[in-house]
Amino acid sequence: MPVSLLLAREITKLFLIxxxxxxxxxxxxxxxxxxxxxxxxxxxxxxxxxxxxxFQIEDxxxxxxxxxxxxxxxxxxxxxxxxxxxxLRRPLKLDAVERATVIYSNAGALVIPLVQALQGQAYVIYSxxxxxxxxxxxxxxxxAILRGGAALNWKAVLTNVNLLSIAAGAALYFLQIPxxxxxxxTMDSVGAMMGPLAMLLAGMTIxxxxxxxxxxxxxYYLASLLRLAAYPLAALALLWALGLAGLIPDGxxxxxxxxxxxxxxxxxxxxxxxxxxxCDVRKASxxxxxxxxxxxLTMPVMIGLYDLVI
Length: 310
Hints:
Blueprint (H helix, E strand, L loop, with lengths): L2 H24 L8 H20 L6 H32 L3 H8 L3 H12 L5 H24 L6 H5 L2 H14 L6 H11 L2 H14 L3 H6 L1 H25 L8 H12 L6 H8 L4 H29 L1
Helix pairs in contact: 1-10, 1-15, 2-8, 2-9, 2-10, 3-6, 3-12, 3-13, 4-6, 4-12, 5-6, 5-13, 6-13, 12-15, 14-15
Family: Belongs to the auxin efflux carrier (TC 2.A.69) family.
GO biological process, one term: transmembrane transport
Protein name: AEC family transporter
């Protein structure tokens, strides 16, 4: 079965879970605000378990080369997105929330479960390369955009739980310290909740959004389509032009984990950051919701193009 169809099947499963999240709020069983509890569980428990488990793998020269390759590709894609946003800012009159939306994807919540489903647990470690680059930029450049200044929030970067998990996992990997099978098995079970819980959270957020305003605001489609179509196509063109997939063995599969992270919808964290920095929270939330819904259609198309071109 083509990878694009496999991805479509996995995204359809996640979409059905999203609808369950909508249903529990619309039925009055939960309130949208209750999603904060689930967010804490996702960010501070589930994601660290997945990341730590991903680094529990035997060290080989091929694996190290693959990690450096994925990290380099992630840096290139982010530089491309930053350059595109700088060029389009004035012509399209992109505000702070829109600029952050088109640059930063929801890779942390979505790419790991999708990589697990499409490529297997062994490839999750490569997706961490994109997450590392994005986390550093999100809490430095991204926060500076939303605050309207250039000051860097290094404390937020260095104390970010995902980044700390990656650092701990990398230390265990390079020192080749294996965790007990009982611990890794537990983390594997906890990590299996990541995709479903992320989509339940998205569904609970969607439940409180006025759908007429969400789908009726033309401006929202601009940032969403840049994030889901224009920027991924530019990234695909860059990867094709540089011929990166042929540089190392298994390069195409490793590169797909990076590309998959780059085509996910708007970063969910931006809504919280917009609230923290007194930006347009409604727009940030709406762009997250709309891009999440549209990604159900765009992501399989982009992966299909990747499989065809790379």
